Amino acid sequence: MSLAFLGTRGIPAQYGGFETFAEELAVRLAEQGVLVTVYCEKGPAEALGVYRGVKLEYVPATRCGPLTTVLFDLRCLWRARKNHDVVYMLGYGAAVFCFLPRLWGCKVWLNVDGIEWRRAKWGRVARSYFKIMEFFATRVPDRVIADAEGIRQHLLQRHKRLAPCSVIPYGAPVVECPPDADLLRSWGVVPRGYYLVVCRLEPENHVREIIEGFLASETSHPLLIIGDHSRKSDYVYALRGYGSDRVRFLGTIFDLEKLQSLRYHAVAYFHGHSVGGTNPSLLEAMGCGNRVLAHDNCFNREVLGSNGWFFRQADDIPELVRRVEGLSASQSAEMSWAVRERVRLHYSWDRIAADYLRLLESERKTPANPDSMSSLSDMP
Fold it and tell me: Which domains does the chain have, with CATH numbers?
């Protein structure tokens, strides 16, 4: 059985959630005997041909503004159209073109990730485009994969029909041994002496609400915010205005060891994401045993279950901070154990890989049919 991953910049992962997902899953499936290929963006440096048993194919990306990613995905679809049993497209920006491998008898899976058109950073034209692509994502591939039940329900509510849909979340490691606390010295903090946010600085991640609620609390600890605060946008500019000893912007941090140390040793982790499914940043915080204060929506509740505290607006946050700081040592340790156990039971990479392996085995029994695409006549 051969499987190709498309829709990432490639592995080894250096950029974001999809790259990490592709690497963790591809390597584990290759270990189980699946012939796995990851299509990567071609760069100027000499590139690997194989990485941990996974074949790497390189495709050039033409820089053309907002269309760069769409055209890159289209090129990858064309290159992969007849060389694999299953092509797995991550993201739906090029969903309309996912019929191409099917014409050559190859099955196509598509992971819709989050609700892209709800992101505030997009203008009217981009939002309209992503709404249309979401429609095609429900019809063109052989199978839709949602990373949360909340995403599947969203698709069912918005669209009259949906291709067969499997719910398989992302995964995360469980950090059992305390990371080196000396790494915190770079930021002048100590274990259990700060709160943490890790996210893109976008309105749908409710960073402003988190900051305002935190500043209204009585805690003496600072709030550390990891995210690109140098980006030029009105929202980021407004956020920078809150910068002080209590609210510190650390910028982007890609060093995994440092990130794990910051997550593990925080008093608590704020998670404001609201338009995604199973968010990798939330899972990684849980894997580090963070006490989580999350925005109240179906996605975060699905991931956390009863193992977190939730806020809807800034006014809710001071009370949650008070509760966190009122925990006894045993209560805090129990919460840390509970979130790690939830990751271990439901979101471990080995479990996720096993779910995909079962799905691949089921596809082996049902031959591809290029004439079976759903009718597109009722396009909105």
Answer: 2-171+349-364 (3.40.50.2000), 181-346 (3.40.50.2000)
